[in-house]
UniProtKB/TrEMBL annotation:
Residues 338-354 form the Post-SET domain. This is Histone-lysine N-methyltransferase SUVR3. It comes from Coptis chinensis. SMART domains: SET. Pfam families: SET. The lineage of its organism: Eukaryota, Viridiplantae, Streptophyta, Embryophyta, Tracheophyta. GO terms for biological process: methylation. One of its GO terms (cellular component) is nucleus.
Length: 358
């Protein structure tokens, strides 16, 4: 197999909100600042991290106003306008941190050397999305050439069709969906998990657990919530990063979101390992907290036809009410008895988060 990057992008949507109108009077009021300065600030500030944004806002009233608007815009949508509905941050804890800063990608991407992205800008035309939509595909990989709807025995991609059973969950742990080389488009019924997040969600902060993903509406059992998106890493890079994250965690900083997926191949003799790091670059799945009792989400590996790596997708294992936190089990292995504390609150709680050697 050879892997190549394919930059099939999703259609660019118009922004859902505009922050510009409130800025107009300010621009005319600040006659000493030429409009060019305004435009530059408008372009540059959305690239800044919260820390740099805070320092620049101390420079003058003008930059303070822009920084404030950017902060509001960021807290309104964790998905940075890349999903169907905005996913707001809600923080009622005393720290009042308005949002969690990261680079958003709706799908798996290759490791980025210097991840950065504009977030919270006013001008939609400069909203950059190209960097976040690469798919890893197998060269000359197969696809179906269904003339009608992809379904049943007719379509080669539908061999593993997801059938949800309310008692046992999905009948397979691995599913296949149509992919890059299939003739069908994204509206194909066998591409259930490829259109991003369609349920309403919120990112809510808890004093002990930190940020967590909550249902923003009633979600039926068996519904697709999201995939776990982030940077795909080599195992060497994953081990190196995990070591750094563990050091930072020991000093109480930087919660990491590095996930190792192991797919046991049909022969039973080999195992495909996929390392997905959503710590700096990822989607809202990076906020999903652990629950010792398994929670209300279950995971399924989904492989698009012609795609090298499977994707880890989350489905609801039962009906979820609006406002409920979405949680799943990170695993059963607890190597360190002094691992990070677990605050899942379930009656089966082990007291510590699962941890294993990466
Ligand atoms: Zn088909
Ligand atoms: Zn199809
Ligand atoms: Zn297909
Ligand atoms: Zn627990």
């Amino acid at each position: 197999f050879t892997a190549s990057i394919n930059s099939k992008t999703r259609p660019i949507k118009a922004p859902r909100y505009s922050l510009n109108p409130t800025m107009q009077p300010l621009e005319t009021a600040n006659k000493k600042f030429p409009s060019l300065f305004f435009q530059c600030a408008d372009l540059l500030l959305p690239w800044l991290s919260p820390l740099d944004l805070a320092s620049s806002s101390l420079t003058c009233k003008f930059l303070h106003q822009i920084s404030k608007q950017i902060t509001i815009s960021r807290s309104l949508d964790a998905s940075q306008n890349l999903e169907t509905h905005p996913i707001p941050f809600i923080n009622n804890t005393p720290d009042s941190e308005p949002y969690s800063y990261f680079v958003y990608t709706p799908c798996q991407i290759l490791q980025l050397s210097n991840p950065s992205q504009q977030w919270g800008c006013f001008n939609s035309s400069i909203y950059l999305k190209q960097t976040v939509s690469s798919l890893l595909t197998i060269e000359d990989g197969f696809g179906c050439d269904c003339e009608g709807i992809c379904s049943g025995d007719e379509c080669v991609c539908c061999r593993l069709k997801p059938e949800f059973d309310s008692e046992f969950g999905f009948e397979y742990e691995v599913m296949s969906e149509c992919g890059e080389r299939c003739v069908c488009d994204l509206s194909c019924r066998n591409r259930l998990t490829q259109n991003g997040v369609s349920v309403r969600l919120r990112v809510v902060k808890d004093g002990r657990k930190g940020w967590g993903l909550h249902a923003g509406e009633f979600i039926r059992q068996g519904e697709f919530v999201c995939e776990y998106a982030g940077e795909l890493l080599t195992t060497a890079e994953a081990r190196c990063r995990q070591q750094k994250y563990d050091e930072l965690a020991a000093s109480g900083k930087c919660p990491s979101a590095l996930l190792v997926v192991r797919e046991h191949l049909p022969s039973g003799k080999a195992c495909l390992r996929v390392n997905i790091d959503a710590t700096k670059v990822g989607n809202i799945a990076r906020f999903i907290n652990h629950a010792c009792d398994g929670g209300n989400l279950l995971t399924v590996l989904v492989r698009n036809s012609g795609m090298l790596f499977p994707r880890l997708c989350f489905f609801t294992s039962r009906d979820v009410l609006e406002g409920e936190e979405l949680v799943f089990s990170y695993g059963d292995v607890r190597l360190s008895p002094n691992g990070l504390r677990c605050y899942c609150g379930s009656s089966y709680c082990f007291g510590f988060l699962p941890s294993e050697n990466t």
